[in-house]
């Protein structure tokens, strides 16, 4: 009998695949596990989005980081996923895991940071939970709801062969430059692209293009081709870092080649300050090689 594999040996994507059959659903669930958010039926002509995310000290931020930036990032990560579905964020529940010897001022700073971002996007922080930790550390988990017009949520699984691939913003160097703490979730950009009906698939780039793009391609049953010379690279970094660093929180978008000019006009009109760059296309052939992005449990 072979030994039971460890989580490290299995990897995040394979672990999720093993867990999916253990997750029941009901008639209200429209889109379940495997996308940036779950989509459920709601009232009227809106659908409800559900998302949960967390930040862990030593992984998503370093000890000594400004508490307000920690709180901001904890909420902004979940908001970025709502944006990737083309939705509007609504209500947050916050669970705080912290060692009892941490100063109260650190917790207050975390909530000030979350509060500032929440007010920026019209989000209510509706409650949550707190728990001590047996050893020193800090973890924040955020559950966030959002909404989107019925039938307008943009999924990872709906790209088509020949679609063009584009990204918002610039990529690479997010952690060393501090961008991972100060990024602005692309709610406006995602909402415009979803409402237009031109985006065929969309997701946010949290683990890096080299990890997240293969996930979108696999969900859509396709391959992809990236033109490295087209990648919008943050100054001072390389195309390999743009593909592999992660923590960018930009949008990865696909659309039909014939809509290229319409999408460009849409971007120029509604979010002219946000770069929007075509970097490749979806294919039926095996995917082109990319430097791997972040892999949980590795």
Automatic annotation (TrEMBL):
Domain PurM-like N-terminal: 34-148
Binding locations of Mg(2+) 4: 36, 81
Annotated binding of Mg(2+) 1, by residue: 52-53
SUPFAM superfamilies assigned to the protein according to its UniProt record, in alphabetical order: PurM C-terminal domain-like (SSF56042), PurM N-terminal domain-like (SSF55326)
Record-linked InterPro entries: PurM-like_C_dom, PurM-like_C_sf, PurM-like_N, PurM-like_N_sf, ThiL-like
Coiled coil (residue ranges): none
Residues given in the record as substrate binding sites: 60, 247, 294
Gene Ontology molecular function terms on file: ATP binding; magnesium ion binding; thiamine-phosphate kinase activity
Job of this protein: Catalyzes the ATP-dependent phosphorylation of thiamine-monophosphate (TMP) to form thiamine-pyrophosphate (TPP), the active form of vitamin B1.
PANTHER family for this protein: THIAMINE-MONOPHOSPHATE KINASE
Protein name per the record: Thiamine-monophosphate kinase
Organism: Akkermansia massiliensis
